[in-house]
Automatic annotation (TrEMBL):
Phylogenetic placement of the source organism: Bacteria, Pseudomonadati, Bacteroidota, Flavobacteriia, Flavobacteriales
This protein's UniProt keywords: Membrane, Transmembrane, Transmembrane helix
Name used for this protein in its record: Inner membrane protein
TM spans (from-to): 18-39, 317-335, 342-362, 368-389, 396-415, 421-440
Organism of this sequence: Flavobacterium caeni
InterPro entries with a match to the protein in the record: Uncharacterised_IM_CreD
Pfam families, per database record: CreD
A cellular-component GO term for this protein: plasma membrane
Superkingdom in the source lineage: Bacteria
């Protein structure tokens, strides 16, 4: 029994071929989806390795201090009535509270030396920081509170620091205050946050009362990773950070001064000057020490765009590469009257998908640029040689090689761009669409 002629003509028409090629393009999204999952899996594994290295070496550093802590007593009055005698008894029950005073001047100089640590094919940035603090306190002022002088326990004052990453402090932390030295000791906290407290023993703050100000200084040496943040609690806070890290990312509420900031391929120098009028909190707190982490400033020590981010961005253009490549082959098929079987389209599509697996695997052992060049040259050469046997000549295969090379080059440029990626990509796609419309303007689709 013969197949009706109209059906035969339909399957041999350009419309049917376009439908089949379009369906194949959508089907190839499945292996492309698995490739993207592979990239995300490797990226997740890298983050695990970074967390593991950071956990052993030292995590990010958050510093809040030094804070002068002075205890005082307030009284609550309770009244009780004896049921038998009907006598009323009044009692004053003392409760201990604390006043927290911030320095008048706080100065910090931090020297941060970064290194890269490797685990298998993954890398992490770690650092050793030497942070030197100095400044001065003025006489604590209780005049704004209704507290009797006898209820202020000056002899039980302490100085405290709130900080993270205590397990990676590399040396004893000793405070020099008013010509005397006091060692900081860790204080037990029932809270489960990552910030802990270091506190000195008792300091007799009465000796401060007859002085206009008292100077202090101390050093802290950390092993850390990823980030350093400090809270500007001085009425005037000045900080300078120097490092050999060439790609700092300044973060937090306050940025360093542009006039003194220097960033080179050998490192950076950054200065901050923050006044009390720049922040929404005062120089003292009664009752509870406030959480001021939202007002911290600092630097992130991270790789700006790692290899897996670049691979992920490249894979997002996979559908575009497959679609445009199939479009070129389809136009050549229509113009040259050469039949290209759907199986041959499938082989070409799989070769295009293989580009991304090659890219990921080679990137883990070399730079992204080297991996991109090797993967692109390999795939372009494979498709070029395969198209010679399909198209029975060299003219169209050479055109395909040139078109694929230009497409991969175009995508690489987009991946490297950040602020102008969308603009450049939109202009490029507009130009490609215009070229396709021009090339297909005289084709008889019937």
């Amino acid at each position: 029994m013969e197949t009706p002629e109209p059906i035969t003509r339909f399957f041999q028409s350009n419309t049917a071929r376009m439908i089949m090629v379009g369906a194949l393009t959508l089907i190839l999204l499945i292996p492309l989806f698995f490739v993207q999952n592979l990239i995300q899996e490797r990226q997740y594994r890298q983050k695990e390795v970074v967390r593991e290295i950071s956990g052993k070496w030292g995590e990010s550093v958050y510093f809040y201090g030094p804070i002068l802590k002075v205890p005082f007593q307030i009284y609550t009055q309770t009244t009780s009535v004896n049921e038998k005698t009907k006598e009323t008894t009044t009692q004053r029950i003392p409760e201990t509270h604390y006043a927290y005073f911030f320095p008048e001047v706080l100065q910090n100089t931090s020297a941060v030396n970064t290194t890269k640590r490797y685990r298998n094919n993954y890398e992490s940035v770690v650092y050793e920081s030497r942070m030197q603090f100095s400044g001065r306190y003025v006489t604590p002022d209780f005049s704004g509170k209704d507290i009797a002088a006898a209820d202020i326990h000056w002899d039980k004052a302490t100085v405290m620091i709130r900080t993270s990453n205590m397990g990676s402090i590399r040396d004893e932390v000793t405070l020099s205050l008013g010509g005397k030295k006091y060692a900081f000791e860790p204080m037990y906290s029932e809270t489960k946050d990552s910030v802990a407290t270091l506190e000195t023993g008792f300091i007799d703050a009465k000796t401060f009362l007859d002085k206009p100000s008292v100077a202090f200084n101390f050093d802290v040496v950390y092993n850390g990773s990823q980030q350093i943040r400090m809270v500007p609690i001085g009425k005037t806070t000045q900080a300078r950070m120097t490092s050999n890290w060439p790609d700092p990312s300044f973060s937090g509420r306050f940025l360093p001064s542009d006039s003194t900031k220097k960033i080179t391929d050998k490192g950076f120098v950054a200065d901050w000057k923050i006044l009390h009028i720049n922040r929404p909190f005062g120089q003292q707190s009664f009752g509870n020490l406030p959480d001021l982490s939202d007002f911290a400033f600092g630097v992130n020590f991270i790789v700006p765009v790692d290899q897996y981010q670049q691979n992920e961005r490249a894979a997002k253009y996979g559908f575009l590469v497959i679609g445009l490549t199939f479009l070129v082959f389809f136009l050549i098929q229509v113009v040259s009257k050469v039949r290209i079987h759907i199986f041959q389209y499938t082989m070409i599509g799989l070769a295009l998908v293989m580009f991304y697996t090659l890219l990921v695997s080679i990137t883990e052992h070399s730079s992204f640029l080297t991996a991109y060049l090797i993967a692109a040259v390999s795939v372009v050469a494979m498709i070029g040689l395969y198209s010679v046997s399909i198209l029975k000549g060299r003219k169209f295969p050479l055109f395909i090689v040139g078109a694929l090379s230009a497409l991969y080059g175009f995508i690489y440029v987009i991946i490297q761009l950040e602020n102008y990626a969308l603009l450049f990509g939109s202009i490029g796609l507009f130009a490609i669409l215009g070229a396709v419309m021009y090339a297909s303007r005289k084709i008889d689709w019937n």
